[in-house]
Amino acid sequence: MEPEVMLDDKNLLAMKLLHYFITEKNYNPIILQGVENEIWLENLQEDCKVIRIVSNYIHNNEQFDFDTFKTKKILSKIKRKTLSFNINVLSIFLDLGENVKLDEISNPNLMYVNVTNEKDIKTSDLLKRVFPDLDKKMTYEEKGEALFMKITKDINKHNQEDAKKVEKTFKMKFPMITYILISINLFFFFIPYIFGQLGNVNGIMAMYAPYIRQGQVYRLFTSMFAHASITHVLLNCYSLYVVGSQMESFLGKIKFLFIYILSGLAGALLSMTFSGNTASVGASGAIFGILGSMLYFGYHYRVYLGNVIKSQIIPLIVLNLGIGFIVPGIDNACHIGGLIGGALSTMALGIDNKSTTFEKVNGWIITAIYIVFVGYMAFIYTA
Fold first, then answer.
1. 197 and 183 in one domain?
2. Domain's final residue, options 137, 166, 195
3. Do residues 137 and 24 lie in contact, with contact meaning Cβ atoms separated by under 8 Å?
4. 335 part of the active site
5. Does one domain contain both 182 and 330?
């Protein structure tokens, strides 16, 4: 017969709080090396981004000041990792000495509350404001070992479900749409090229502002599948393969295709504004849209991709835009238009398990405003 699990009041209170924040509010544990007697939790979608449950005994103001200093140091690391400029943290102390003078509302980014029992939760103005349902969720029918098993089981189940969601998102799928888009780009270059008709085909498909304003609106879409040279088409197809296969896997085929087409359209419209009587071809506007989508996606998964965003995605975007400003003949307006269109359309479609309905509605509104704006600039303002 197994011995009954015995928990003292402090550990039981810590487990109840942990159960609430993980299973009810979707906070995730943060793994910190060298940190003892405290649990860090993060949910960057909540108003209160980070929660600390501190069971270590702090008996005077000197220890409390050191704890605050340590918290700020750790918080600065979390900011860098998650690309967050402003993160607030709520520290819940379970064993605070009477000599510590604690002001719950002294700092909006470093909030503190002393909770020695469940009664303190009900009487804390801070907790009632930030987590108004906390005191109601702390009541359990189970006692003793049964309560310990329930809390442990619920937390493990929640963590497993979250892990499955993340695994499903990042598991690579066959990028069928990416391969189809690459095939279309290659078809519209090499078939005319082989038969000596590349110039004629590009003349029909190219983004040429005067003809588009005269009614050949189809050029806004066909121009993203036409290319000027072998080097041009191969570089764009390789770029599309690298970034497209990733984002199609992350977002899904329908979302990916929508973002690609809308980004290409946005890029072509902004290109019209600045191109004058110069023709433009290429998939780079749509590809930059995929980079914008990758940037938005990575920001939502910055706990996992924070270092990738800083070391790869942002430098890649900056480098390519920089080349576009330096090297003549590159349609950087198309790149910028596509980049913005990709980020906004991804916001509108939403990131699975991350985006809220409010964010997606705002995304559709901002995307519509953006397309109307670049359309006005292309057809009316610069006409």
1. yes
2. 166
3. yes
4. yes
5. yes
**Cα separation of 153 and 319, whole Å?**
49
DSSP letters, 194-236, are HTT-HHHHHHHHSB-HHHHHTT-TTHHHHGGG--SSHHHHHHH
CB under 8 Å to 143, separation ≥6 — which residues?
Answer: none
Q: Please tell me the predicted confidence (pLDDT) of residue 327.
A: 84
Same domain, 179 and 260: yes
**Domain holding 296: CATH number?**
1.20.1540.10
Q: If you average pLDDT over residues 126-149, what whole number do you get?
A: 87
| CB of 198 closer than 8 Å to CB of 192 | yes
Position 3 in a domain? no
* Structural domain ending residue among the three candidates 121, 136, 166: 166
Ramachandran bin of 276, using left for φ above 0, alpha for ψ from -120 to 50, beta for the remaining angles: left
pLDDT in tens, 322-357: 988 888 888 999 999 999 999 999 999 999 888 889
Given a contact cutoff of 8 angstroms between Cβ atoms, the answer to whether 280 and 223 are in contact is yes
Comparing 49 with 145, the larger pLDDT belongs to 49
- Name the active-site residue from 19, 227, 300, 335: 335
Average pLDDT value for residue range 120-128: 89
For residue 166, the one-letter residue type is V
Task: Please name the residues in contact with 251: beta carbons below 8 A apart, sequence gap of 6 or more.
Answer: 259, 293, 297, 346, 349, 351
Indicate if 53 and 190 belong to the same structural domain: no
Per the annotation, the verdict on 59 as an active-site residue is no
* Active-site entry in 91, 271, 275, 284: 284
Residue 196: which domain range? 172-381
Please give the radius of gyration of the chain, using alpha carbons only, rounded to the nearest integer. Answer: 27
Residue-wise pLDDT tens digits, 30-44:
877 667 788 999 888
Residue 249 CA, chain-centre distance (Å), reads: 15
Judgement on whether residues 178 and 161 belong to the same structural domain of the protein: no
| DSSP for residue 51 | E
d(CA 250, CA 298): 10
Q: What tens digit of pLDDT does each residue of 273-312 get?
A: 998 889 999 999 999 999 999 999 998 888 788 778 888 8
Average pLDDT across the chain, whole number = 89
Q: Which token pair is 348?
A: 């509108």
pLDDT above 50: residue 104: no
Dihedral (C-alpha) 213, 219, 224, 226: value to the nearest 10 degrees? Answer: -130
